[in-house]
Write a structure and sequence with these properties.
Helices cover 64% and strands 5% of the residues. It is mainly α. The chain has two domains: 2-104, no CATH class; 119-170 and 210-467, Hydantoin permease (Orthogonal Bundle). A two-stranded antiparallel ribbon has the order 1-4. The chain has a two-stranded antiparallel ribbon with strand order 2-3. Helix 4 (119-130) packs across helix 18 (379-412), helix 6 crosses helix 13 (305-312) and helix 7 (186-194) packs across helix 21 (453-472). The model is unreliable at 1-73, 77-85 and 96-113 (pLDDT under 50).
Length: 504
């Protein structure tokens, strides 16, 4: 038996195909769980627009005993369905470089998926999410261990988080393509592959993680606003100035996060962040001591790892990046790698400026708040640090509000737009209420988030999702099993270590 591809425009086509370059790959299978494609049929990942796709002739598949006309369009069943009986029918199928038929039918934008964005905007979203106001806390957590161990922990964190993010790319794209009318979040991806119980655990953990980040950033922004007003550091006036600053920050940034041009707003904040870091490095370079940089204590450095991981986390933005890049696997992976590398390098320079100065290193080693001291000392370094705090907090808050609004829309089946009052309330109010407690929550929220939620969400769950995906695709080898199992084991051990050593 053979398959012949005949041009058709009728709605009854079972399978459609499109030609990209010199090879043809099956497309469609809206819910056909056996619609998996062999690796040797992969295409270049440029995703044509809806108009380009619809302008091309589709091809229906006719099955019969007649000998088809010879030509390059002839394919066999094995070319389209590698092994029907071995595929896990409960998982989303892999697709071609064209969006699913359901997605095309809705013209992409304006339903639940967000608007398409430029690749550089997506990369800056990752950068802005990874470089948050938590960067000011890094010297505080790393001062006891010294600069060199901190750089090593930064490298480990960057590699681990990038690996975790890349692991989630393919499952997220498959769920995204399969659900054009749903605002897909990490919670949906985990539930699709690991079941409802794991989905609930992921949802609760994700909600806690994002709100911890929001609380820490809002609390710090409130403190910065109070400092900017010039009120006394102690007393009722400072408390209310801090709360007012927290409230205004939440309202302004949440409003910006729901705008259609949020990508450009975040790009401006991230650009300001780059400039601020450059200014801080120039201002602090003169006082750096090589002896101060060389001091190291590995035992005292290890407890800083959860805070570093939390500060560099960005995987919550993956569904948004999938939207912006329209599911292009090559673009998404490039965005994650490039967007996350910048923050790692920036953190190295920031730690060199703070831990490499004798006076600041000694102050930090004694448990003092280095960022607060730099801001209080003023000067060019103090001004640059204040600018870093503002720009980093803006970019992180935007990324978190985007991720949390998508999660809430997905969980509670709400429209993903600023006209939904319930969505706005669920996204903004919980963290805002907690942040009103004051700036003392800044370090506490960062440390807690890195100890449990980060390790579970981005350390334990991604390898399990990848295990299920590859097992369903019949590609799970012994070597990959060992790597994924090791990733889960290390993450669980890190969680246990962090919980035992956690102090309020």
């Amino acid at each position: 038996m053979s398959l012949s591809l005949l041009p058709t425009t009728g709605p009854g086509a079972v399978v459609s195909a499109t030609r990209c370059g010199a090879r043809t790959r099956a497309v469609g299978f809206p819910r056909a769980r056996w619609g998996l494609i062999r690796p040797d049929q992969q295409l270049a990942r440029r995703r044509p627009t809806t108009a380009e796709f619809r302008g091309r002739p589709s091809f229906a598949v006719s099955v019969g005993s007649a000998v088809p006309e010879p030509g390059p369009e002839d394919v066999s069943i094995a070319d389209i369905v590698p092994d029907i009986t071995s595929i896990d029918e409960s998982l989303p199928p892999s697709r071609s470089c064209i969006e699913s038929e359901a997605f095309l039918a809705h013209d992409g934008d304006g339903i639940a998926h967000g608007d398409e964005g430029e690749e550089w905007e997506a990369a800056l979203l990752i950068t802005g999410t990874a470089v948050g106001g938590g960067s000011l806390a890094l010297p505080y957590f790393c001062a006891a261990g010294g600069f060199v161990p901190a750089v090593g922990l930064l490298a480990i964190s960057w590699a681990a988080l990038l690996g975790s993010a890349l692991t989630l790319v393919e499952p997220t794209i498959r769920v995204w393509e399969d659900n054009p009318s749903v605002a897909v979040s990490i919670h949906t991806v985990v539930e699709t592959y690991l079941g409802k119980l794991a989905g609930v655990a992921a949802g609760v953990t994700f909600w806690i993680l994002i709100n911890c980040t929001l609380v820490s950033q809002l609390a710090k922004c409130g403190q910065l606003a109070a400092l900017a007003t010039g009120v006394a550091a102690n007393g009722g006036a400072c408390v209310w100035a801090t709360r007012l600053g927290t409230l205004l920050t939440a309202l302004v940034i949440a409003g910006a996060a729901f705008r259609r041009d949020v990508g450009r707003i975040n790009a401006l904040a991230t650009t300001g962040l780059f400039c601020s870091f450059a200014a801080a490095c120039l201002a602090g370079a003169a006082g750096i001591s090589t002896n101060a940089l060389a001091k190291a204590n590995l035992l005292l450095a290890v407890p800083a790892l959860p805070a570093i991981m939390q500060t560099m986390t960005y995987a919550e933005a993956i569904p948004t990046v999938v939207d912006m890049c329209r599911g292009s696997r090559k673009k998404i992976r490039r965005v994650l790698a490039v967007g996350s590398l910048g923050p790692a390098l920036m953190y190295v320079l920031w730690l060199a400026v703070t831990l490499g100065r004798r006076d600041l290193a000694a102050f930090g080693a004694s448990g003092g708040d280095l960022a607060a001291k730099i801001l209080a000392d003023g000067g060019m370094l103090g001004a640059a640090t204040a600018s870093i705090a503002v720009c980093a907090s803006v970019s992180t808050l935007i990324g978190c509000y985007l991720a949390l609004s998508r999660f809430n829309a997905d969980t509670f089946h709400l429209p993903l737009n600023k006209g939904c009052t319930k969505l706005l309330a669920l996204t903004v109010l919980p963290s805002l209420v907690l942040a009103m407690k004051g700036p003392e929550l800044y370090y506490l929220a960062i440390k807690f988030a890195g100890t449990v939620p980060v390790a579970f969400m981005w350390g334990v769950l991604p390898p399990l999702v990848m295990w299920k995906q590859y097992d369903g695709d019949q590609k799970l080898g012994v070597g990959l099993k060992a790597i994924l199992a090791a990733g889960v084991g290390v993450s669980l051990a890190a969680m246990g270590y962090g919980i035992l050593g956690f102090e309020v």
